[in-house]
Design a protein that fits this description.
The complex is a heterodimer of chains A (about 375) and B (about 475). Chain A is mainly alpha-helical and about 375 residues long. Chain A has 19 helices and no strands. Chain A has three domains: about 35 residues; about 55 residues, no CATH class; about 220 residues, MetI-like (MetI-like fold, Orthogonal Bundle). In chain A, α2 runs antiparallel to α18. Chain B is an alpha/beta fold. Chain B folds into two domains: about 160 residues, Periplasmic binding protein-like II (D-Maltodextrin-Binding Protein, domain 2); about 250 residues, 3-Layer(aba) Sandwich (D-Maltodextrin-Binding Protein, domain 2). Classes of the chains: A mainly alpha (about 375), B alpha/beta (about 475).
């Protein structure tokens, strides 16, 4: 290095980081921050996944990975396994080649059963080992109702979201501006619903719905007509004028200048045309807001589906709930089922994230 | 469908509509086909919806009902279960007219009984074709009407003994790890010494968290513990408990229930109990740690014995009867919970008008036939108040671990099972509609009272005064 250079170095000291370096560092810091945030967000799902493999005997300890499972003890009682591992005796008998009509004393041990039916001990151990280690997932995946239940939940949720947005936007238009006394009165009546606990109206609502849908042919018989009517009942309850949806749409439409409607009317539009071609395209913000709020509400709905839907026509939460017993809970199955039920919700948010974010952000900018 | 800016509103709505239609079709397509098949078969078959004893036992009871379906191919049984969280919704369905064939009344909520308030909602079983009344070891046809003072036949049936709460423990932890000998406990003082020694030994043991595992459960504590603990004392027996209820002397100086509060207060002050145990959850904070062998001992009914065995078939469990006697109490009494006189299987009223009424009566009678009662008792591992044709093969762990020792030749052959009426049962006929009862356990009212007594914010006398007020508000005594 020359003297001239040294002189230059002293007079104009180099900054430790160039602008490009600073940008890079900032990017790394932001990336690290979001990476931490992602880990914190995803960690509960990971724990849920690990816990779906943790048996009750191991449940008092912290597990960051799936624990080892002891081999099956042939002293285990057949009845106890069916009760506490949620095994279907009919399937167990079929899998092990035991005649379906044979009654197995619930207190017989696996050794007794193996001896009686000439089942090799290793086969017996291997068969029950998988149910011991993967109990949650095997019980869940052997459940024939899982797939239709997932699809049914998705269908009811999508239909409810669409219905509530359409109805609430119409309500909002009707009450828009809250200029007249009657509009304010109706708006107040909608808001009054917020103070009514759902349990309070559960029975009268159930009887009304039952009377209405009782006119559907074959409603009193098990079958598709009954199941569809029940699903429609849930959708009707979900989309009926609620306080939140009315408030969101009414508040948003009230902000729009009345000139907009006047101009449309001057141009010869009908009210329906104004709603359809002018108002509806402006409703992305309330639609996104309401959808973001109501999606998990509809997806995780328990009370109404449990009351209105037959057990073999259920949605996810009542389906998961059935694995909780009176005296004991099979946490492995419940954790597995919760994971399965969460995945579609996450996928929906990922697919439509741009729509949701754009809607919410446009509201923020306008605000 | 999409453009550079993303999904348009119109496309989004179209996509959503198409998705919804597709999903609805997909979700109902397969069940529809299955239902059609089932519905066709149902034209020749009567389908009855029957409540299982408990959700846990649904699969195992399915095996028993399969025998019925072999005997009666024209009747198909669809089992359903309801746990505590689902009870209100089940009650709404029932009130709305969706009537199952029969179910245990506690499906409507753990504390629900057939009482003077609701008995007309259920069929009078003496009017049905039921052939097994004489099999009960007590007068089951009149027991309910005696209890509630009404002119009616039984509205619910249960063949079992009441639940028996005993101290249950891990023998390996208790004896090998801690060096204690519960089987040498013969008096209440011995028992208190065991609690003290066990708590001290556990404090020095890193692998065990608690000697006496305890959490809160409204029914277990308010409906059982309150009656159990006094039975160690000469003035706390069932007769004294009944007298307190009949005479309205819950808060008297010699109230038997004083012993419950005093014992728990002593235990809490000595740190024998977990801190703030009234805030702990029964299954997650008490049973699970026991199964994980972090807790040595619990005062519990029969089911966790089985839960433990299912989790670890090599588990070595034993028990001692609940209340070793205090000096002056001649006999060691073992609490047995109330018989299921008002707490068994019921047939909802309205079924008599159903075209399936004959089938319902057939299935109900079969469920209480001698062979089936034997199978059910062996499944649950519980004793019965019913004469079966063959002796029961009770191989349940609670029976093997402690109850068989109460039989002649057993370690506890001198211990007597107390199966008399409890105080609450004795005055059940006088209870006002919608009232809380003495301990208000159905609504969780006892919990804050116990909490206040434990923390010293309330005296035992104040707790008894609260119970006395509940008694006065709950009963119309003649």
């Amino acid at each position: 290095m020359t003297d001239q250079t040294r002189t230059l170095d002293v007079s104009t000291p180099r900054r430790p980081f160039s602008p490009a370096d600073r940008r890079r560092l900032l990017n790394i810091a932001v990336f690290a921050l979001f990476a931490c945030y992602s880990v914190i967000t995803l960690f509960p799902f990971y724990v849920l996944f690990v816990r779906s493999f943790v048996s009750t005997t191991d449940s008092a300890d912290l597990h960051l990975w799936i624990p080892e499972t002891d081999e099956v003890d042939l002293r285990a009682q057949f009845g106890n396994l069916t009760v506490f591992l949620n095994l279907d005796p009919a399937k167990v008998k079929e899998d092990l080649g035991i005649p379906a009509n044979d009654y197995i004393h619930p207190r017989y041990t696996l050794q007794n059963v193996a001896d009686k039916y000439d089942i090799p001990e290793e086969e017996m151990k291997d068969y029950f080992y998988k149910y011991k280690r993967y109990n949650g997932w095997l019980v869940l995946l052997n459940e024939q109702e899982l797939r239709p239940t997932l699809l049914r939940t998705l269908a009811i949720t999508v239909a409810s979201l669409m219905g509530i947005n359409v109805l609430a936007s119409l309500t909002g238009y009707g009450l828009g501006g809250l200029r007249r006394r009657d509009q304010r009165l109706v708006y107040g009546l909608y808001l009054l619903q917020m103070v009514l606990p759902p349990m309070l109206i559960l029975l009268p609502q159930y009887m009304i719905i039952k009377a209405i849908f009782g006119i559907v042919p074959d409603y009193d018989q098990p079958g598709t007509a009954r199941h569809l009517a029940q699903a429609v009942a849930i959708i009707a309850i979900n989309i009926k004028g609620g306080a939140l949806s009315t408030m969101i749409y009414t508040a948003y439409i009230s902000q729009l200048p009345s000139d907009l409607e006047d101009a449309a009317m001057v141009d010869g539009a009908t009210r329906w045309q104004y709603y359809r071609y002018v108002l509806l395209p402006l409703m992305k913000v309330p639609a996104a807001t309401l959808s973001v709020i109501m999606l998990p509400v509809f997806w995780n709905q328990f009370l109404e589906p449990y009351v209105y839907l037959d057990p073999n026509n259920s949605t996810m939460l009542p389906f998961i709930q059935k694995f909780a017993g009176q005296y004991s809970t099979n946490f492995q199955v419940i954790f597995s089922a919760i994971l399965v039920s969460v995945v579609p919700l996450v996928v929906v948010y990922i697919i439509f994230r741009r729509f949701f974010i754009r809607g919410v952000l446009s509201g923020a900018v306008k605000g | 469908m999409t453009n550079k800016k993303g999904l348009s509103r119109r496309d989004f709505l179209r996509l959503s509509a198409a998705s919804a239609a597709g999903l609805v079709a997909a979700s109902y397509a397969e069940p529809a086909a299955a239902e059609t098949r089932r519905f066709r078969s149902r034209r020749q078959q009567t389908v009855l919806q029957v409540g299982s004893t408990n959700p846990e036992y649904e699969n195992a009871e399915r095996q028993i009902w399969n025998i019925f379906e072999q005997e009666y191919p024209d009747i198909k049984i669809e089992l359903f279960s309801t746990n505590e969280d689902q009870a209100p919704a089940f009650a709404a369905r029932l009130a709305g007219g969706d009537l199952p064939a029969f179910f245990p009344i506690y499906h409507l909520g753990g504390s629900t009984r057939v009482t003077r308030d609701n008995y007309q909602n259920f069929v009078d079983l003496s009017t049905t074709d039921f052939p097994w009344f004489d099999r009960w070891t007590y007068d089951v046809q009149n027991a309910w009407s005696d209890l509630y003072g009404l002119d009616s036949g039984p509205r619910s049936l249960d063949p079992y003994q009441g639940f028996i709460f005993t101290w249950m423990y891990h023998r390996d932890l208790m004896e090998d790890e801690l060096g204690l000998s519960p089987r040498e406990v013969n008096t209440w003082d011995d028992f208190l010494a065991l609690l003290a020694a066990g708590t001290e030994a556990v404090a020095a043991n890193d692998d065990i968290d608690q000697f006496w595992g305890q959490a809160w459960h409204n029914w277990a504590i308010g409906g059982n513990y309150v009656d159990i603990i006094p039975m160690a004392f000469a003035d706390g027996q069932r007769s004294a408990q009944r007298a307190a209820f009949e005479n309205g002397t819950i808060n008297a100086p010699d109230s038997p229930f004083r012993h419950f509060f005093e014992f728990f207060k002593t235990a809490y002050d000595n740190q024998w109990l977990p801190e703030n145990f009234w805030t702990l959850e029964w299954e997650a904070d008490m049973e699970v740690p026991y199964i994980a062998k972090k807790v040595v001992m619990m005062l519990h009914g029969p089911w966790p014995w089985d839960k433990m065995l299912a989790a670890d078939p090599s588990a070595d469990q034993a028990g001692i009867p609940a209340t070793p006697p205090v000096e002056g109490q001649e006999v060691w009494k073992q609490f047995m919970g109330p018989l299921g006189i008002d707490n068994g299987f019921v047939i909802p009223a309205g079924n008599q008008d159903s075209p399936d009424w004959e089938a319902i009566q057939t299935a109900f009678a079969w469920w209480f036939s001698p062979l089936v009662v034997k199978l059910r008792a062996e499944l649950e591992g519980r004793g019965v108040m019913y004469e079966t044709d063959e002796p029961l093969e009770l191989l349940g762990p609670q029976y093997l671990g402690v109850l068989q020792e109460l039989e002649p030749g057993g370690v506890y052959e001198s211990v007597q099972l107390e199966s008399g009426l409890t105080g609450a049962e004795a005055v059940a006929r006088y209870r006002r509609e919608g009232s809380s009862g003495v301990w208000d356990w159905e609504a969780g009212g006892l919990n804050p009272i116990v909490a206040d007594v434990m923390t010293g914010d309330m005296s035992v006398q104040q707790a008894l005064d609260w119970a006395q007020e509940n008694w006065e508000a709950s009963y119309d005594m003649p």
